């Protein structure tokens, strides 16, 4: 490990020097790639992510996250071994896509509402593509096949939840040893010893947690809004810079012939396991940048099920560009990259496998569902995203209340038998 750390600095410097040399050799290609990256950031990422960044900051300031944390705790803690506030992060991450889940996880970690292990579990299952990109850009735009939407969505989000369940086993030894415990209690506990409460009492406790969080914050609405806009602008600029960097990096590697070499090597590797070598460009491009990988999957020389599986793999892996965004957001929180990378790789393989397993039954049912899944103009508005967020939160709340009621009934039955 120490040898790797010692070699990391010189190797990184050598890589950056090589990138600088390629920029000098191919200045026109570098400029064109940078402009393409800027266009993606300005036309797609800024309008889709910036409102969610601002609103999530305001929700934290007003204590809304603490409210949902108290309500969702009976569901999230037994299933995923994370506090109830993770339910809100899960809904926001699924609606708005990466890296919003990582952003909210980092904010909860900064407020000492998550341990390091809980934060790593949470971000493992909340880093996902947003539905508009998956259904609109990928299914309709890249594949020209809206029937593909339900299968891709079920594989992507279903495997994400499976990753969350599997990651609940992550860090249990560390928790048993008492390392990294949160000094401040979770808002679902409200500073009091946890005990069984009826649903009405839980709701009252949730609103009390929200009021207490708002009192501790203490900022006026103007101060909250100013802080939310400032921090969100800083973050969206970092996201844009990383998108431009990786777009230029891939273009430079392509100009230098490195991408062609990687395509050939990955193609041979895929053929060994019986997969079409035509998927090599999609997998390789998706390793660096998710949009380019998904687009390459739509035009790959392979059967449609394998192309869909490659797109699911790329969407779940996220690309090194998203990984870099998440790492920059995590700076100073103590969260580790290795568990995140392992979760992304697991999510990618599970998503591709589920796509192949669900292909026949889902594609037989998809033609009737295609009109429901094809994003029309109205579904590209921010209002539609917030409607979906409200539906997810309402569904999670109902499941949480049902879980709390079931736990209460089981507890009463056990006490009555004694």
Automatic annotation (TrEMBL):
TM segment ranges: 49-72, 79-100, 147-167, 233-250, 345-363, 383-410
Which InterPro entries would you find in this protein's record?
A: Gate_dom (IPR011642), Spore_IM_YlbJ (IPR014226)
Give the top-rank taxon of the lineage listed in the UniProt record for this protein.
Answer: Bacteria
Mind telling me what this protein is named?
Sporulation integral membrane protein YlbJ
Q: Does the keyword Transmembrane helix apply?
A: yes
List every stretch annotated Disordered.
Answer: 175-201
One Pfam family it belongs to: Gate
Which keywords accompany this UniProt record?
Answer: Membrane, Transmembrane, Transmembrane helix
NCBIfam families in the record: spore_ylbJ
Could you confirm whether the keyword Membrane appears in this record?
yes
Species of origin reads Paenibacillus forsythiae
**Record-annotated Nucleoside transporter/FeoB GTPase Gate domain positions:** 45-114, 237-314
């Amino acid at each position: 490990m120490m040898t790797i750390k010692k070699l990391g600095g010189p190797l990184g410097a050598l890589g950056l020097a090589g990138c600088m040399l390629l920029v000098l050799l191919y200045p026109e290609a570098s400029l064109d790639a940078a402009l393409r990256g800027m266009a993606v950031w300005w036309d797609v990422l800024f309008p889709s992510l910036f409102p969610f960044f601002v609103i999530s900051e305001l929700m934290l300031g007003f204590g809304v996250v603490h409210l949902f944390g108290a309500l969702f705790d009976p569901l999230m803690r037994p299933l995923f071994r994370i506090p109830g506030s993770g339910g809100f992060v899960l809904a926001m991450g699924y609606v708005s896509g990466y890296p919003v889940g990582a952003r909210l996880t980092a904010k909860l970690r900064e407020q000492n509402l998550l341990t390091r292990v809980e934060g790593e579990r949470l971000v493992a299952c909340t880093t996902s593509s947003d539905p508009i990109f998956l259904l609109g850009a990928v299914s309709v735009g890249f594949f020209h096949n809206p029937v593909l939407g339900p299968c891709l969505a079920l594989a992507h989000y279903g495997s994400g939840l499976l990753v969350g369940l599997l990651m609940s086993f992550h860090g249990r030894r560390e928790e048993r040893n008492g390392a990294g415990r949160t000094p401040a209690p979770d808002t679902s506990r409200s500073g009091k010893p946890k005990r069984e409460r009826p649903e009405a009492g839980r709701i009252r406790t949730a609103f009390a947690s929200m009021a207490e969080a708002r009192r501790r914050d203490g900022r006026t609405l103007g101060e909250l809004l100013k802080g939310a806009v400032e921090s969100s602008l800083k973050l969206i600029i970092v996201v844009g810079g990383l998108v431009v960097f990786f777009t230029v990096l891939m273009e430079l590697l392509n100009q230098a012939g490195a991408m062609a070499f990687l395509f050939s090597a990955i193609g041979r590797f895929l053929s060994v396991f019986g997969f079409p070598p035509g998927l090599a460009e999609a997998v390789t491009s998706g390793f660096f940048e998710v949009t380019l990988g998904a687009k390459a999957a739509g035009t790959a020389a392979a059967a449609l099920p394998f192309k869909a599986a490659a797109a699911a793999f790329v969407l779940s892996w996220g690309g090194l560009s998203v990984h870099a965004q998440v790492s920059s957001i995590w700076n100073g929180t103590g969260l580790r990259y290795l568990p995140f990378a392992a979760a992304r790789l697991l999510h990618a393989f599970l998503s591709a496998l589920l796509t192949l397993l669900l292909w026949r039954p889902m594609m037989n049912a998809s033609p009737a569902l295609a009109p429901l899944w094809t994003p029309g103009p109205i579904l590209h508005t921010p209002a539609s995203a917030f409607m979906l967020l409200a539906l997810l939160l309402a569904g999670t709340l109902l499941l949480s209340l049902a879980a709390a009621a079931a736990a209460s009934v089981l507890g009463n039955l056990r006490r009555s038998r004694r």
